[in-house]
Design goal:
single chain, alpha/beta, Rossmann fold, six-stranded parallel sheet, five-stranded parallel sheet, 14 strands
Length: 441
């Protein structure tokens, strides 16, 4: 059975072919997705809650009496989940909280020159909207990854939007995870309409300052559009379909490699899984392991479609492998190689890295402690994954004494003169003249 993955020898490709080999699959969405997202946003801004209720029926097949998850529904969700599920959610929260707590940065206070004090103090984003996808695979883990750092950052307003099920309820695991993280306001709204509701507010859903979380093409388009509107809401990061790159050598376990590739491919048909390998035998064995395991997996059709975008790239050595890594800038990078830690300094562009045979990407998705909301589609070249800092702003302060201003006065007036900004210079001179008169008096 063929996996559908392309087999490539990197050394045989010219530059054009190398670019083509690392090109992500085009997002398989309606070409009018941006226009459709814009129409949904405009409708929500005009009709508010009424539009959200219509869209819930049209897109989710849910007839809702209320958009907000009630106390009774939350209690029912908790009762529905078994003890094992609740324990897993609590343990994941504890690990994510432990890692993210370490990211809290103390204020900075520096005297840059005598009498010149500069400070930087973190402030939380006042209101944040957390989008948790549901669809064919509800993601309580995403509720954890968003809500934990938002809480640690101290954001006063934290709301979650998640699509309703056809029975009119939010996914119980998402509700339980959200409330365990301290988020009480959960709304049964999905898609671009959720983004619009959080960006502009409705009678039920509060307006927020910044929107976080992954989503489909419509969600991504809507986040981009509202972020470009000063009246809308900022977005966390640009992103595309999920992806993984596995770097493996001859000593890797082919079954481990196969399952790591498939675990990412099962996110969606536009996900991408790439194996970069120094050994042809391991590459063949990994593809045989994929073919053997695939028929038994529930999401085998999704995985199969995703693997059509995948590739097995044979390289001469690990130096060549890491050149490919940094060109591709994967969301997830798994190193199934001997002594992986010695190659850490070679990794420049990656969202999150998994070292060694006992570190599957799945642990990062759920409970190791790192955040799984990561830049995709090559944005790891310039963006980081979510952190506590994503939910904060840094405000700078400065305070000068009279002597401090006198010490910097000539520097300010000279630079202001170079820029032709005389009022800048005069704002300093008038103070120094006033100081001189007081000194004379």
């Amino acid at each position: 059975m063929s996996t559908g993955m392309k087999n490539i020898r990197w050394s045989e490709l010219d530059e054009s072919a190398r670019l083509d080999a690392l090109t992500r699959p085009a997002v398989r969405a309606n070409p009018d997705v941006a226009a459709q997202a814009a129409e949904i946003i405009a409708t929500v801004r005009r009709d508010g809650d009424a539009a959200l209720l219509r869209y819930a029926k049209d897109f989710d097949g849910a007839t809702l009496e209320s958009l907000q998850v009630s106390a009774d529904e939350a209690a029912s969700a908790l009762a529905e989940l078994g003890a094992t599920a609740i324990e897993a959610i609590d343990r994941a929260i504890a690990n994510v909280e432990r890692f993210h707590t370490a990211q809290l940065a103390p204020p900075i206070r520096i005297e840059t020159a005598p009498g010149v004090i500069c400070e930087r103090i973190s402030r939380p984003v006042p209101a944040v909207g957390l989008y948790v996808p549901a669809g064919s695979a509800p993601l309580p883990s995403t509720a954890i990854m968003l809500a934990v750092p938002a809480g640690l950052a101290g954001c006063p307003v934290r709301v979650i939007c998640t699509p309703p099920r056809p029975d009119g309820r939010a996914d119980p695991a998402v509700v339980v995870a959200a409330q365990a993280c301290g988020v009480e306001r959960i709304f049964k709204v999905g898609g671009a309409q959720a983004v619009a509701a959080m960006a502009y507010g409705t009678d039920t859903v509060p307006k927020v300052d910044k929107i976080f979380g992954p989503g489909n093409a419509w969600v991504t388009a809507a986040k981009t559009q509202v972020a470009a509107d000063p009246a809308g809401a900022a977005l966390d990061m640009p992103a595309g379909p999920s992806e993984v790159m596995v770097v493996a050598d001859a000593g890797a376990d082919p079954e481990f490699v196969a399952l790591d590739l498939m675990s990412q491919a099962e996110h969606g048909p536009d996900s991408q899984a790439i194996l970069v390998c120094t050994d042809p035998g391991l590459a063949d064995a990994a593809q045989r392991a994929i073919a053997a395991a695939l028929p038994a997996l529930p999401r085998r059709e999704t995985i199969g479609a995703s693997l059509q975008h995948g590739a097995v790239i044979l390289v001469r050595d690990l130096d060549e492998a890491f050149e490919i890594v940094n060109r591709y800038a994967p969301e997830h990078l798994i190193l199934q190689i001997d002594k992986p830690r010695q190659y850490v300094d070679l990794i420049i562009n990656a969202g999150s890295v998994f070292l060694g045979p006992w570190t599957p990407e799945a642990v990062g998705d759920y409970c190791s402690g790192t955040n799984h909301v990561l830049p995709t589609y090559g944005y790891a070249r310039s963006y980081s994954g979510l952190s506590v800092g994503s939910f904060q702003k840094q405000v700078t302060f400065q305070e000068l004494s009279r002597d401090g201003l006198a010490g910097l006065g000539d520097t300010v007036t000279t630079l202001a003169g170079l820029e032709g900004l005389e009022a800048h210079a005069e704002a300093v001179r008038v103070r120094l003249r006033r100081q001189s008169k007081r000194g004379a008096a």
